[in-house]
Amino acid sequence: TEHVLDPRTRLLLFKLLNTGTLQRINGCVSTGKEANVYHADGRESEVAVKVYKTSVLTFKDRDRYVSGEFRWRHGYCRSNPRKMVRMWAEKEMRNYRRLSQAGVPCPAPLQLRDHVLLMGFIGHDGYAAPRLKDAPLSLAMATSAWKQSAQLLQAIFNDCRLVHADFSEYNLLWYKGTVYVIDVSQAVEHDHPNALIFLRKDCENSIGFFRKHGVDHLPTLQQLFSFVTDPRRPPLEQMLAIETGSVQLPSADEARICEDVDADGEVGSDALSAASDAEREVSERVFAQMHIPRTLGELPIKQVERDFGGGERRRTESSAAYDAMLGLQA
Cβ(206)–Cβ(149) under 8 Å? Predict the structure, then answer.
């Protein structure tokens, strides 16, 4: 705590108290590598006070979230830790504003003083809402949280023109049946060089968490990625219908598995399901490892010809990346 509440930080908090912006600062509700969050009483409502750690915060792994972004095209001070912290706090404040203006559930940004960020408090009577990873979710609640998470990814990308870049159960709150997005300091513009790479990881994190909670009919990584990046903003039901309602005829190899295992079809059906799951897993792994270019200029023409000339399956695995890059129908 002493790394956070240094003399300069204490002075900032005292000024907030003296001006009446804050009536009282209570206990710490969250601690992290980069910041601590405190509960405070504001003039009219409860306030979350996020204080960035100025003396221990390092940005060695943060350059990839800033370099190449238009907002920091004139450069930023890497050698001055205090300026870096202030810049990071400003970045989070701006991102929260964009989320709030788009109607994305998140803490309302109230005020920024140097490296102290005041936000609306998600919780009640000093008790903070649990992170999604700690929330006691029933299957019905987990299913609702999954649908909300998919829609949040879509709204952040299309309405806010951002990619969270750390979208996981650790940075989502569960409060009164609603999923709230937090910790958006690392969020990048949708045209950031690594935006689609970050988005793919966000989708992967979301699917992985809800799969552990037994949510049925989850989409593949490629399906969720296509849903999020589709500029037509398809309804969630459309993606779910693709996952649960489509009927595909078995391939010749899959049919042969059924015939070889059991003529009655019971075990053969299980074998077909296993083969389908295996193919799906391979397809997901291929998409998870694919390089996702941001512009066509990044690709040699031979690679484009290879991607679209390698058969139907190759084109299917490549289509989501190209559709997202070009803004075409996913």
Answer: yes
* Catalytic one of 166, 270, 307, 323: 166
Q: Containing domain of residue 86, as a range?
A: 7-128
Flag whether 2 is in a domain. Answer: no
Looking at the fold, whether 227 and 259 belong to one and the same domain comes out as no
Residue 136 lies in a domain: no
Q: Do 164 and 305 share a structural domain?
A: yes
- In this predicted model, what pLDDT tens digit does every residue of 110-132 receive, in sequence order? 999 999 999 999 999 999 999 99
> Quick one: tokens of 71?
């907002």
Q: Taking residues 153-162, what's their average pLDDT?
A: 96
DSSP assignment string, 154-168? HHHHHTS-EE-SS-S
CATH no. for residue 308? 1.10.510.10
Cα–Cα distance for residue pair 319/220, rounded to 1 Å: 14
Residue 149's nearest CA partner among 212, 195, 209, 231 is 209
How large is the average pLDDT for residues 280-299? 71
Residue 183 designated active-site: yes
Residues 73 and 206 in one domain: no
